[in-house]
């Protein structure tokens, strides 16, 4: 600790001018030199007969140099030399310097310089130590402040987490009240929350479900590849679809599933909330309804063919009658003497041709009446139209309806069920024929066209010249059990529209000025299927 004032130890150093502070320091340092030599002189004179004269002066020089520095130390050397020569060394009160005096001055000067260096080192060490202590105290204060701030933040975070935990527990309790199946899984599909609804639906208690991979636990059957579903989930933040899950007892359940993606404050995905509703009964009802619709479609198809019984019989009887006629002719040619084999051979050829024609008619009828599940294939639409026209040709002739076709030269390829599309076209043709029964024979015309409406759709129209439809009933004609015929069932157009819509198309009705109606349906062109 220094005996002299310093800038660090001065309490009001900031208010004093620097020069006054420096002068005060110099006064203290050089005053110490004078005071220490004076004290050494007084004590030496008092104890001169008991001790040597030099130790106290050595001590005065060393003390002054140690605490005051090199300048005050040298001043102490000069004053000590003067005091010894003048007051203590004979002749007294004179300043004659001898060899002994000079050696004394040299030794004292060396001691002063050495003490000054040691004092400078000590002061530097004190300054470094003081700076290190100040820096340490500052760092301790800063660290203490940081720790206090961190502690406050930690306490706030703990409190926030406690509130969040309480909120989550409240939400979890609320989620347990719902009948919906709700569970949360992390980004590795590991279940982290499992509500009471999930326990009731799937059969696994919460403690057994948490920690398991959800898709493995429920053996999920997805409607699309999982990576496609996750891509949509990441993009939109949600996904909806139907899943098939296996319960703990091994039975399956169909669920309407909704996935919601949860992100943290940095927008990183951290969890997926999955909500499932059991729709097994609804799916079974839909399947039963589909089965009933298929049955009704088949009944309608058979009923339509029943209405065509006379025409079909005529269509089949024609080739059969020709077979009999040609058979009798063949027998006559063979009975001739000699047998006319060339004519008999020609007659047999006609028999085969007529037999094939009858077989084709029966085959078309069997295909249309056949009860079979829906089967979609790549079809040529113009071929289907031609097949139906061949089936209804006798009915057209019997009712003296003039048929005109304008079929596209392009290959109109669609993806669908051949029998169902035949049923739609046949129903539209029969409706057109029946709409013209009240007209004169010369006014009965039916036009069937096909083509592309745009690059993605093909269109077929059936246009008649009948009485037409009431504009107010253009949509009502497609309702079930609505009919304008005295003996109609009112199901043909309703079933036809459901078939076209199941194929991704549209069926509509339009007026045909000046008289008649136009029924038009479109079907999508599936380029992937075609290629």
Structure commentary:
Residues 7-14 have low confidence and may be disordered. The chain has four domains: 18-145, no CATH class; 178-278, Beta-Lactamase (2-Layer Sandwich); 281-371, no CATH class; 374-531, Histidine kinase-like ATPase, C-terminal domain (Heat Shock Protein 90, 2-Layer Sandwich), CATH 3.30.565. The strands form three sheets. Strands 2-1-5-4-3 form a five-stranded antiparallel sheet, with helices on both faces. Strands 7-9-10-12-11 form a five-stranded mixed sheet. The chain has helices spanning 18-46, 54-68, 70-88, 99-177, 196-202, 206-209, 214-217, 226-236, 280-307, 309-335, 341-369, 381-398, 418-435, 492-502, 527-530; strands spanning 181-185, 191-194, 238-246, 252-263, 269-278, 377-380, 402-406, 413-416, 445-454, 457-464, 506-511, 517-524. It contains 15 helices and twelve strands. The protein is α+β, with helices and mostly antiparallel strands and 531 residues long.
The number of strands is 12
Q: CATH class of the largest domain, anyone?
A: Alpha Beta
- Cα-based radius of gyration, to the nearest Å: 58 Å
**Mean pLDDT over the full residue set:** 77
CATH architectural label of the largest domain: 2-Layer Sandwich
**Strand residue percentage:** 15-25%
Number of helices: 15
Instruction: Describe the strand arrangement of the main beta sheet, using strand numbers.
Output: 2-1-5-4-3
In total, the number of domains comes to 4
Distance between the termini: 99 Å
CATH superfamily of the largest domain: Histidine kinase-like ATPase, C-terminal domain
Helix fraction bin? 55-70%
Going by helix content, strand content and strand pairing, the class is alpha+beta
Give a short account of the largest sheet.
5 strands, antiparallel
Low-confidence stretches: 7-14
Succession of helices and strands: HHHHEEHHHHEEEHHHEHEEHEEHEEH
């Amino acid at each position: 600790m220094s005996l002299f004032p310093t800038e660090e130890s001065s309490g009001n150093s900031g208010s004093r001018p620097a020069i006054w502070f420096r002068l005060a320091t110099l006064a203290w340092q050089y005053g110490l030199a004078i005071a220490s030599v004076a004290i050494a002189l007084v004590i030496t004179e008092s104890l001169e007969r008991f001790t040597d004269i030099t130790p106290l002066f050595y001590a005065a020089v060393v003390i002054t140099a140690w605490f005051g520095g090199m300048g005050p130390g040298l001043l102490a050397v000069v004053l000590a030399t003067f005091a010894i020569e003048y007051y203590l060394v004979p002749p007294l009160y004179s300043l004659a310097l001898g060899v002994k005096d000079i050696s004394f001055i040299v030794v004292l000067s060396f001691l002063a310089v050495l003490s000054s260096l040691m004092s400078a080192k000590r002061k530097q060490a004190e300054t470094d130590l003081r700076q290190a202590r100040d820096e340490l105290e500052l760092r301790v204060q800063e660290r203490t402040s940081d720790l206090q701030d961190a502690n406050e933040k930690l306490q706030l975070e703990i409190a926030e987490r406690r509130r969040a935990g309480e909120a989550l527990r409240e939400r979890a309790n609320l989620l347990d009240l719902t009948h919906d199946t709700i569970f949360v899984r992390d980004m590795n599909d590991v279940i982290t929350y499992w509500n009471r609804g999930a326990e009731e639906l799937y059969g696994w208690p919460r403690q057994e479900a948490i920690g398991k991979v959800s898709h493995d636990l429920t053996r999920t059957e997805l409607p699309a590849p999982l990576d496609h579903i996750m891509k949509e989930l990441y993009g939109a933040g949600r996904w909806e679809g139907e899943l098939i899950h296996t319960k703990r007892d091994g039975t399956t359940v169909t669920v309407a599933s909704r996935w919601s993606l949860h992100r943290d404050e940095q927008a990183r995905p951290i969890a997926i909330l999955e909500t499932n509703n059991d729709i097994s009964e609804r799916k079974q009802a839909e399947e039963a309804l589909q089965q009933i619709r298929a049955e009704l479609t088949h009944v309608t198809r058979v009923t339509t063919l029943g209405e065509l019984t006379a025409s079909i019989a005529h269509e089949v009887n024609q080739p059969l009658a020709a077979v009999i006629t040609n058979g009798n002719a063949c027998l006559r040619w063979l009975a001739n003497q000699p047998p006319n084999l060339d004519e008999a051979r020609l007659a047999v050829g006609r028999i085969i041709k007529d037999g094939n024609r009858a077989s084709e008619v029966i085959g078309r009828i069997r295909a249309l009446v056949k009860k079979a599940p829906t089967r979609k294939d790549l079809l040529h639409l113009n071929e289907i139209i031609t097949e139906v026209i061949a089936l209804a040709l006798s009915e057209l002739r019997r009712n003296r309806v003039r048929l005109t076709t304008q079929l596209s030269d392009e290959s109109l390829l669609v993806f669908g069920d051949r029998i169902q599309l035949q049923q739609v076209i046949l129903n539209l043709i029969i409706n057109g024929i029946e709409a013209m029964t009240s007209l004169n024979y010369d006014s009965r015309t039916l036009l069937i066209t096909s083509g592309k409406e745009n690059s993605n759709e093909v269109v077929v129209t059936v246009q008649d010249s009948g009485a037409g439809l009431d504009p107010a009933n253009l949509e009502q004609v497609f309702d079930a059990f609505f009919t304008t015929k005295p003996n109609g069932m009112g199901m043909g157009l309703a079933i036809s529209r459901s078939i076209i819509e199941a194929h991704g198309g549209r069926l509509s009705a339009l007026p045909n000025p000046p008289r008649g109606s136009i029924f038009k349906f479109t079907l999508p062109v599936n380029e992937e299927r075609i290629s």
